[in-house]
Amino acid sequence: MYIRPLVPADLPVCAQILCAVYNNDLWQCRWTQETAEAYLTDAMQHRAFVGYAAVEEDDVIGALFAHEKIWWNNSEVFIEEMFVRPDRQGSGVGSALMHTAEDYVRRHSLAGITLSTNRFAPAAGFYRRHGFTDCGHVLFMAREMN
Asked: Cα(125)–Cα(122) distance, rounded to whole angstroms?
């Protein structure tokens, strides 16, 4: 397995993986291939996009979609999405992607990495094992407009 920068040609397979990861009882999402591709395309078109693909035998098996976020004291990397094909989760693919993002932060002398995730999903434990902490001072808010 190796990590390389994401390219637009990776979007269809990344959308397939995103659907496989999130369309289940745990995450309760209902992504379609079309909406997943549009979502990931939007992330990739960010002017400060940072993205990596985990590849094994020419197949993308995981990806990280992020961007540099300007902040008052020093910019940071904000991870929009990170996902690994379900049959490869727990095999070090996510850790390799995370280490690549960490290397990017160090090379560019950025402040760090931020992200959001479901506090009740296994992903939170993964991020904590990689040194992330729950930010008590941050409140994630939403308003549904249906």
From this structure: 5
**Per-residue pLDDT reduced to its tens digit, 44-74:** 999 999 999 999 999 999 999 999 999 888 9
65-80 as b/e: b if 16+ CB within 10 A: bbbbeeeeeebbbbbb
Asked whether residue 44 is domain-assigned, the answer is yes
CA dihedral over 14, 18, 20, 21, signed as positive or negative: positive
Give the chain's domain count.
1
- What are the pLDDT digits (tens) for 97-117? 999 999 999 999 999 999 998
- For residue 47, being part of any structural domain is answered with yes
CATH number of the CATH domain containing 77 = 3.40.630.30
Q: 131-144: per-residue pLDDT in tens?
A: 989 888 887 888 88
| Confidence (pTM) | 0.92
